[in-house]
Amino acid sequence: MSGSISATTIAYASIAATVASTAATMYGQSQQAAAQQDQAQYQAAVARNNQVIGQQNAQAALDQGAAQEQVQRQKTKNLVGAQRTAMAANGVELDSGSPVDVQSSAASMGELDALTIRYNAQNKANAYLAQAGNSGAQAGLYDMQGANASSAGAIGMGSSLLGGASSLTDKWSTYQQKGVL
């Protein structure tokens, strides 16, 4: 028959298709692993940026707290000074009795307010630092995920190569047994 394809040609085409399919599968696995690794690296970079932002926010909270604490202490000094001035203007003896208690109470309450401001700022900073620590840990996990994607891609490619080689060997053997090759 003219124009017909020989069994040998079909056998070689089948073998070539197996090789091409194996190569395409391996290429796809390689591309998928690379994409997963790139994504993990991007996510790790974002997490590291969040870590830095958290650390900066913590320092800003401490700085803001220190400034507010200083303002509170100045307000307390001004209050005690105003009390002393008012009492002195009214002829009150400032260094004994109730006037000392009034001034001492105002100073104590003002100091308590200043220390509360410091405590709140430290708590806020600690929350930011915890968030920064979590972001740093997440970055490490993304790094591991990227490394695992690369390894999984290599394993998948190796598995595809072995599967393709096995299929190729089976086809070759079958075609030889049938006398096609």
Structure description:
The chain is mainly alpha-helical and 181 residues long. The protein has one domain (7-177). 90% of the residues lie in helices and 0% in strands. It is built from two helices and no strands. The radius of gyration is 39 Å and the shape is rod-shaped. The model has no long low-confidence stretch (mean pLDDT 94). This is Internal virion protein B.
Low-confidence stretches: none
State the helical fraction.
over 70%
- Summarize model confidence as the mean pLDDT: 94
Number of domains: 1
Number of strands: 0
Share in β-strands? under 5%
How far is the N terminus from the C terminus?
Answer: 20 Å
Name the overall outline: rod-shaped
Structural class: mainly alpha
Count of DSSP helices?
Answer: 2
InterPro entries: Gp14 (IPR038996)
Pfam family, one: T7_gp14
Protein name: Internal virion protein B
Keywords: Signal
